[in-house]
Amino acid sequence: VASTTGDVRRALELLRRATEITEAELAASARQQGQAQQPGGAKALINVVGSKQANFAIREMYGSVHMSLLRSAGAYQKLVLVALLVEMRAQNKPEVTVAALHHRLNSHVALLMGAAALPLARVVEAAAALGAQRLVVAEAAWQGPGMRVALNVPQDDVVALLREDPSLALVQSCLA
């Protein structure tokens, strides 16, 4: 996990979850056998957490609904997410306007990708689509340059999935 996402915290979170799964399995097994749980803490888990629990934790971590929605997001939506992450960090604010995203896309991200400028209408459309999927919180009543957008899913999940996308290889430096 750390080598794929570059995030050791994510790997440690996965190990913690695999350990919790093992603890739950051991407790269920002890209850079925009518035994009291043995005290022993971490010593009782030595050589017990295995690939089965790790694979379950991976599926749990990367199989959530928002992760599936992020994987299936379109190209414009992913570019808007990159711009949202960059703009949130630049402004040090949890929410930004679509106009700021549009500016960031055309001044920064599009230049890195060697792509043509995105029309404002496309950015509004992509932000609204992300809002409809609840990946971002967006003002549904008013869709225009002043519409405020905020990330509605864990930032680490967005970064991890955007890093996996080969079409975004040129903007990986923005996701660091």
TrEMBL record:
Name a GO molecular-function annotation: DNA replication origin binding
Q: Which domain of life is it from?
A: Eukaryota
What are the protein's UniProt keywords?
Answer: ATP-binding, DNA replication, DNA-binding, Metal-binding, Nucleotide-binding, Nucleus
Q: Where in the cell is it found?
A: Nucleus
Name one process (GO BP) from the record. Answer: mitotic DNA replication checkpoint signaling
Any one Pfam family match given in the protein's UniProt record, by short name: WHD_Cdc6
Its job: Component of the origin recognition complex (ORC) that binds origins of replication. DNA-binding is ATP-dependent, however specific DNA sequences that define origins of replication have not been identified so far. ORC is required to assemble the pre-replication complex necessary to initiate DNA replication.
Q: How does it assemble?
A: Component of the origin recognition complex (ORC) composed of at least ORC1, ORC2, ORC3, ORC4, ORC5 and ORC6. ORC is regulated in a cell-cycle and development dependent manner. It is sequentially assembled at the exit from anaphase of mitosis and disassembled as cells enter S phase. Binds unmodified and methylated histone H3.
Q: What is this protein called?
A: Origin recognition complex subunit 1
What's the source species for this entry?
Tetrabaena socialis
